[in-house]
Design goal:
Blueprint lengths: L1 H7 L1 E3 L1 H28 L19 H20 L3 H18 L6 H13 L19 E3 L1 H23 L1 H5 L1 H9 L1 H6 L4 H7 L2 H21 L6 H18 L5 H9 L10 E5 L4 H13 L5 E5 L11 E4 L5 E3 H11 L4 H12 L2
Parallel strand pairs: 3-4
Antiparallel strand pairs: 1-2, 3-5, 5-6
Helix pairs in contact: 2-3, 2-5, 2-13, 3-4, 4-5, 5-6, 5-13, 6-11, 8-11, 11-12, 12-13, 15-16
């Protein structure tokens, strides 16, 4: 029965479509990085490389260039949503093949991107926000592929946090301390005060941060699967990855995980409404912002018909819970539902609750 419920779950696919577009741009960035490496460093097959496959399976330079061009075309198709699912599968296979041809080509973020592309290919991510799909077409489909992609996010966190937990150098903070010492001069050259760099280069600080990173990853692995903890987990994850981007070079890993967070949005298209006064500029501006940033199709936005509430208000927001909100509470409800403003909502709502 549980397997049947899992396979038969049907829901709105706008979150999948938003994730598809985000991953399409990431695949384009990946192609750009791969092409740049080939231009500046030369074709990897003509200098030192360590293939997993037999050497005879490593392509020629012309063959590899063709694969990179195919990846670029596939990434564009993913963004457009035209033949998106085959294009996602091709992108995943191309990234995987390149890593099998040279293990020095392997990076965690590239493998994660390949995994997400493959799992998205199993979803109806091309039934919304796609070239050739009618504007008012029904955007629903089976969600089991999306659930697998959600599980993949947790698997990555569990693998990363678990590996660090079992590594004595990570648990003790030695790895973190080495990073702070090795790249401290670069931070100073970038404008970070020397005393700040010196603070992080203390053994107890590195030990504390290492244990915090391990705890954070293990928390995210399980909390993202909990409806009760999901909002907290996503905000914590955003802060976690921003801090990693500021202190380390992890290529596209942070952006890849951020795109994967879109898959955790509740599939409830137009479950919220925004009604605004078409004669007031700030109301028109809010409606425009919501339409532009509502990548998950969460709001039904329209000018209102005047009523007892509307006469004295510029806009009224009705949440998924059916509660009508006006003024700043309405703005907070909008911020909560839009991916780009969600982190700001989390901070502002916490500050308001502490008053």
């Amino acid at each position: 029965m549980a397997t049947r419920r899992f396979m038969d779950e049907i829901g709105d696919v706008h979150a999948l479509a938003a994730a598809r577009i985000a991953f399409g741009f990431l695949l384009l960035l990946q192609v750009w990085e791969t092409a740049s490496e080939q231009i500046h460093e030369g074709y990897f097959g003509e200098h030192f490389h360590v293939p997993f496959l037999p050497e005879s399976f490593v392509p020629s330079e012309r063959g590899y260039t063709f694969i990179v061009c195919l990846q670029a075309v596939a990434a564009v198709l993913v963004v457009l949503g035209h033949f998106a699912r085959p294009a996602l599968a091709i992108s995943s296979a191309a990234i995987t093949y390149a890593m099998l041809c040279d293990r020095l080509h392997y990076h965690h973020n590239r493998w994660a991107l390949a995994c997400y592309a493959f799992l998205l290919a199993l979803t109806p991510c091309d039934r919304a926000r796609a070239l050739g799909v009618e504007k008012n077409a029904v955007a629903e489909g089976p969600l089991w592929g999306m659930r697998l992609a959600q599980l993949q996010v947790s698997i990555i966190y569990l693998a990363s946090g678990g590996a660090k937990l079992l590594d004595p150098d990570w648990r003790s903070g030695a790895m973190m301390l080495d990073r702070f010492v090795r790249y401290g001069h670069a931070a100073i050259e970038s404008g970070v005060p020397e005393r700040v760099v010196a603070f992080f280069q203390q053994a107890w600080v590195a030990s504390f941060l290492s244990k915090g990173a391990i705890t954070m990853e293990l928390f995210l692995a399980f909390a993202l699967q909990s409806r009760r903890l999901r909002l907290v987990a996503i905000f914590v994850g955003i802060v976690f990855h921003v801090s990693i981007e500021l202190t380390s070079r992890v290529e596209l890993f942070g952006l890849t995980t951020g795109a994967a967070y879109l898959l955790f949005a509740t599939p409830d298209a137009r479950a919220r409404t925004l009604r605004y006064d078409p004669t007031r500029r700030k109301a028109i501006a809010l409606a425009w912002v919501v339409r532009a940033l509502d990548w998950l199709a969460r709001f039904d936005v329209a000018p209102w018909e005047p009523d007892a509430i509307a006469r004295s208000r510029s806009f009224v927001v009705t949440g998924r819970d059916g509660v009508t909100r006006t003024g700043f509470r309405a703005v907070l409800e909008v911020m909560r539902a839009l991916p780009l403003t969600f982190p700001a909502w989390a901070i502002v709502s916490r500050l308001r609750s502490n008053r």
